[in-house]
Design brief:
Elements: H1 16-28, H2 31-38, H3 42-56, E1 61-64, E2 67-70, H4 72-92, E3 106-111, H5 113-130, E4 135-140, H6 146-152, E5 158-161, E6 170-178, E7 180-185, H7 197-202, E8 204-208, H8 217-223, E9 230-235, H9 241-246, E10 251-255, H10 256-261, E11 268-271, E12 280-287, H11 294-305, E13 309-310, E14 313-314
Parallel strand pairs: 3-4, 3-5, 8-9, 8-10
Antiparallel strand pairs: 1-2, 5-12, 6-12, 7-10, 7-11, 13-14
Helix pairs in contact: 1-2, 1-3, 1-4, 2-3
């Protein structure tokens, strides 16, 4: 911001190049040398000085025995304008190095429910270790395409959830997949392996639908066979499901990671579904305008580092969060 109080002047009409010319004239006290300093000819600098005098209603520089001498008005403007130009240059400068250890910046991440449980504790630990002065803000979202609106509006730097609708302005990076399992309370009469389709359909089902729909992945797979299941309960919160199943006779088809992370695994019988279900994929999304920014690249790499590949499955890594290296 250029902090100059000029009464009656339309600041929107100021040419930034004129202020650069003023700064050069203050430094060189010569039209010719000031032009050479900023790559302008002597006539172009003389024209700039003439425009500055009209704009600021002051002579600004008068000839003296040792070159141009600034007027009191020019001296008054010199320091704040120089400081403002330096700030503009720092703001516009595109550095290729981001140092997380010294950064005091802030990142905003959009998270669906499951990635919040799986990744957020590890990410917070990693940031605390390698970027202690960085702030992290979390925004929740439910519907997959909410991520697009959030990124378009600049409300988040990145978002993690199931893949949104394809669009050329939103870029994605695969993070991990979750396979589906069926869960029953321990001791349930139907809790034996393998679970057959007939027994599966005979049970009352709990459906987790964050988007409040009554038709999920299981229903789509059954519909291909001309079959339907009986829904006993639908709810939007997936992490409430394991406890509800553990205290009822309902069956739920959940992501394996939800069962493991819920703390209810010891109270449940985990079975393979009697129908083939594609795994749920979770991706990191960001807007194309942030793609090349070094701090944003570092943040995305830091997030990806919290999802180590494990034997036979991409998923959660226990213990401490993986480190986030300095990126360039």
């Amino acid at each position: 911001m250029i902090c100059v109080n000029i009464h009656g002047m339309d600041l929107h009409g100021i040419d930034l190049n004129l202020l650069v010319a003023f700064d050069a004239l203050m430094a060189e006290r010569s039209v010719t040398r000031a032009g050479a300093r900023i790559g302008r000819t002597q006539p172009a600098m003389s024209a700039a000085l003439s425009r500055l005098r009209t704009l600021l209603r002051d002579e600004l520089f008068v000839r003296g025995p040792s070159g141009l001498q600034p007027t009191p008005r020019a001296l008054e403007l010199a320091e704040p304008l120089s400081r403002a130009l330096a700030q503009i240059q720092r703001t516009l400068e595109f550095t290729q190095v981001f140092d997380p250890a010294s950064s005091t910046g802030a990142f905003t991440i959009g998270l669906q429910e499951h990635p919040a449980f799986v990744l957020l504790p590890r990410l917070v630990l990693a940031l605390r270790t390698v970027a202690p002065h960085v702030s992290l803000h979390v925004r929740g979202f439910t519907a997959r395409d909410d991520a697009i609106g959030m990124l378009d509006a600049g409300e988040a730097d990145v978002a993690i959830g199931v893949p949104p609708a394809s669009t050329d302005r939103i870029l994605t990076r695969p993070l991990f997949e979750e396979r589906f399992v069926c869960v029953l309370r321990k001791g349930h009469p139907a809790g034996r392996e393998p679970l057959d389709l007939e027994g599966f359909l005979a049970l009352s089902h709990l459906l987790v639908s964050p988007e409040n729909e009554r038709f999920g992945h299981v229903d789509a797979a059954l519909a291909k066979r001309g079959l339907k299941r009986r829904l006993g309960l639908t709810l939007p919160q997936m992490y409430a499901a394991p406890k509800l199943v553990a205290s009822s006779d309902m069956i739920a088809t959940l992501m394996e990671g939800v069962v493991e992370t819920s703390g209810m695994a010891d109270a449940l019988r985990v079975l393979s579904p009697p129908i083939e279900l594609a795994p749920a994929a979770f991706v990191l999304c960001w807007h194309r305008r942030n793609d090349a920014h070094p701090a944003q690249r570092w943040f995305r790499d830091c997030i990806a580092a919290q999802v180590p590949r494990q034997a036979g499955r991409q998923g959660r890594g226990g213990g401490k969060g993986a480190s986030c290296a300095r990126t360039q």
